[in-house]
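During the no-cost extension, the postdoctoral fellow (Dr. R.K.) reprocessed legacy sequence entries with the updated structure-token encoder. One reprocessed record is reproduced below for audit purposes.
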Amino acid sequence: MRALIIVDVQNDFLPGGALAVPEGDKVIPVINELQEKFDFIVATQDWHPADHSSFASQHPGKSPGDIVVVEGEDQILWPDHCVQGSFGAEFHQDLKQSNWRKVFQKGQNKLVDSYSGFHDNARKADTGLADYLLAQEVSEVYIVGLATDYCVKFTVLDALKEGFDTYVIEDASKAVNINPNDFTLALKDMSKSGAEIIRSRDISPE
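Re-encoded structure tokens follow.
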């Protein structure tokens, strides 16, 4: 069976949000149309405590984009975003949610960031997503959302490590692009690791 995984299409990652992905809102109609082609859909949600260590506000004298060491791991600092219970952490109102099976929250441990929908960055804990998909006999995953060069990329890489046949839907994802070519580099990294890069038009309804 195949599953669609929608990664972090939340207000803070959309135009006007605290950590807006350029043109991030453009993926919403593409994802909504894709949902009509899948019987099994899950989503991930960034869900940070207000004092998360990835927030530049928690490190005096530091700014977003700086890198610090937290618990022995390099951590890029971000603006405060997707704080638990906040409007910024909510899924965008135009994103269809009625057919989702489950939402997997990540980034709840304030001492470690969590880009992937499967594991935190230090691989100390997992969200339960892999076990859930396997229990439902899912073998193929199609991954979309925000952002291509961070949470989508790491979700894809972990899906491959978990043994799923993994597809990235290129036109249903946008990148932060701290560097101008980060979107392209992320696609190359995912492809080299074994993911197939496809477009929404390539997918047939179930």
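The two ends are 10 Å apart (CA to CA). The beta strands are 2-7, 41-46, 67-70, 73-76, 102-106, 140-146, 165-174, 196-198. The remaining legacy entries will be reprocessed before the final report is submitted.
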